[in-house]
């Protein structure tokens, strides 16, 4: 994030060794994106430059998968959270939850 070109780095910190390791890069470089994570995955959507792309990183396989685009364009700087295994995005006066089995976004 910050100034400069969009970033797509994906790095992990090993708390036991104190060493950073590069992982598979995020397919879409961006800044000011919305992110949520649990022990199995990292969910990333939207950001700057403006995009509705939604991508999920699987920790075990070190791979990214594109999912259904976020339904609102121009979102950057919102809040994301994993709640009971579902990625939720909140911004201003709306909230959406991603329904993984249906690959759809649901307004809350």
What does this structure look like?
This protein is globular. The model has no long low-confidence stretch (mean pLDDT about 90). The protein has about 110 residues and is mainly β. The chain has strands at about 10-15, 20, 35, 40-45, 55-60, 65, 80-85, 85-90, 95-100, 105. A four-stranded antiparallel β-sheet has the order 3-4-5-6, with no helix packed on it. Strands 7-8-9-10 form a four-stranded antiparallel β-sheet, with no helix packed on it. Strands 1-2 form a two-stranded antiparallel ribbon. The chain is built from no helices and ten strands.
Give the gist of this structure.
This protein has 108 residues and is mostly beta strands. It contains no helices and ten strands.
**Main β-sheet description:** 4 strands, antiparallel
The main sheet orders its strands as: 3-4-5-6
Topology, number of strands: 10
Relative helix content: under 10%
Q: What is the radius of gyration?
A: 14 Å
Structural class by helix and strand composition: mainly beta
Instruction: Output the helix-strand order.
Output: EEEEEEEEEE
Q: What is the residue-mean pLDDT, rounded to a whole number?
A: 92
Features:
four-stranded antiparallel sheet, mainly beta, 10 strands, 44% strand, globular, 108 residues
């Amino acid at each position: 994030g910050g100034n400069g070109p969009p970033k797509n780095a994906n790095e992990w910190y090993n708390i036991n060794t104190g060493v950073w390791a590069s992982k598979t890069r995020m397919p879409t470089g961006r800044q000011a994106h919305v992110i949520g994570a649990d022990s199995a995955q990292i969910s990333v959507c939207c950001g700057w430059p403006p995009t509705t792309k939604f991508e999920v990183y699987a920790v075990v396989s070190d791979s990214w998968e594109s999912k259904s685009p976020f339904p609102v364009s121009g979102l950057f700087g919102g809040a994301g959270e994993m709640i009971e295994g579902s990625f939720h995005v909140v911004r201003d006066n709306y909230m959406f939850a991603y329904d993984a089995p249906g690959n759809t976004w649901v307004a809350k």
